[in-house]
Structures are given as C-alpha cells and as structure tokens.
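YM 10:42: Pleckstrin homology domain-containing family F member 2 sequence, as discussed on the call
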Amino acid sequence: MVDRLANSEANTRRISIVENCFGAAGQPLTIPGRVLIGEGVLTKLCRKKPKARQFFLFNDILVYGNIVIQKKKYNKQHIIPLENVTIDSIQDEGDLRNGWLIKTPTKSFAVYAATATEKSEWMNHINKCVSDLLSKSGKTPSNEHAAVWVPDSEATVCMRCQKAKFTPVNRRHHCRKCGFVVCGPCSEKRFLLPSQSSKPVRICDFCYELLSTGEMTACQSARSDSYSHSPKSSLNDASDDDDDEDSSD
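YM 10:58: structure's back
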C-alpha cells in the first residue's frame, strides 16, 4: 500500500499541506518515496507538564510540533528518523493513560493517546514502518537510547544526594545520561555524549564516575522504567516548555 501511495497525487497533496502548516520555519518534507501514513494529537510528557502536540507519521520519519491553530498552523517542528526509533509500552497508572516511550539515540520521551485503540494503532504503524526500513537497509535496530527525563514534578529534592531541596533559587537540572533531576553541586561535570551533542553535556556525579571508568551500561540500571507511574499534572496550562529537554539545564 505504501508503495502505491508513494507517487500518488493525494499523498503529495497531503504532505504539501503539512509543510504549509509549519510555514517557512519548518523543513521541507516532500521527497521521492515518502508517504504520510497518519496524523493525530498526542499528549507529550514534557519536562514541566504534559502538553498536547501534533504528530505526523511518515514511512521514514516521525514529525511533531506545537499546535498554534489546529489543522492550520504548527511551530517548533521536530523530525525523528524512524530507523533510530524504538518504542516501549507504558503501563496505565495515574491521570495519564494509553502511553508509550519513543526512544532514540538523541532524544527519548513519553507520549499518550486518547484511547487504547489509538495507542495500539500508533504503535503498530510505527513498528511496521521501522521494520520495513530496517529490512530494506539491512541495518540492525538501535541499541543506544537517550534517557527519558524525569519530569520536574516528580522530584522535590535532588535524586542523587537526596538532601538538596529545590527552590526558585536552587534550580532543577537534568543528567543527560540517566535523566534524573539533580541539584547543581551533583551535576557540575560535563561529558561528551556524541549521540546527543557535539559538546560535553551536563551529567550527574554518579554517571560521570561510571562513564569515566567505562561502565556506561550501569547508568541505565538506575531506573528500570522512567514512567512506571505518571505525574499528576494538569493538562490545561498554556505555557510552552516543549524544548526544555534541549536547554542547558
């Protein structure tokens, strides 16, 4: 079916509409062989609170952005190559349900669908696209993924020293290796993680010691499931912190 749609006028028109919705700030999306599989609104668990985001699934990439005007205008376009994507289901618990993790070497995060059926359809389509891409390229699935950040709301004190309380003055920081919320003194060091940045990034002291001694896999065992429970956050706050994951903290 994808091959039949690849060069169809309907597919070209649909992709053109998506491009226009992102405007001049978005990257061009029309290339030979690319097919728009589906689209919809998912709740993305951002650093400070869950936010509604518009997602577009193509046969080779996953695109998402902030909703400015539904079906008409989006901004802050993000493009994720599907070859590098792995997805894992999240158990229902708390206010957010029907979720799964989208994991890549550069960025990983949790999303939630409105219904269990919608979740199943998204996960099935993503897995099918990834499988087809890997089959055609002969590549193996990526086994390196960026940590999923623990939301700010889940940590009132530093998750490493367990002593420092967070206040407007004592700010929260995130370790780029394990995703923990940590205080400044526990995350003063920097380490080069090539899959995430061309420059050394902030990591906690615990991960720094493991990385320095070559025990990188141990960093991943600190949390078995970032979102085994969901933060009880409001979904109606209009402030935008979708890009907090890419900030210096």
